Amino acid sequence: MLREASEQTHFGFTSSALGAELCRHWFFPESLARAVAEQNAPLAAECPSPYALTVQMAKTLYLLTLARQPATMIPVVADARVAQALQLKLMLVEANWPETLELAKGVESLL
Fold it and tell me: How many domains does the chain have?
């Protein structure tokens, strides 16, 4: 949230709000625009978007992958409420973490 507050202070809008407006300008589905808008705090919405929840969880896993964090850090970094809303079982994610890291190496080589 610190980044969003800084963006709001300096620019008068956040990157999430800008991204959502670009989605609308390009006539993407409203569900996608909403996911972009709510990605940093999906649980703050009255009715959380499953797409925003998924984006937030994907960002968390991506950051863990880049930082090469051990699987034991997943519950600490990942918001358990987001995982619960997605009906994700963090123990299953932890169990498959080594495979996830291997897949991440393959993706990094493509970048």
Answer: 2
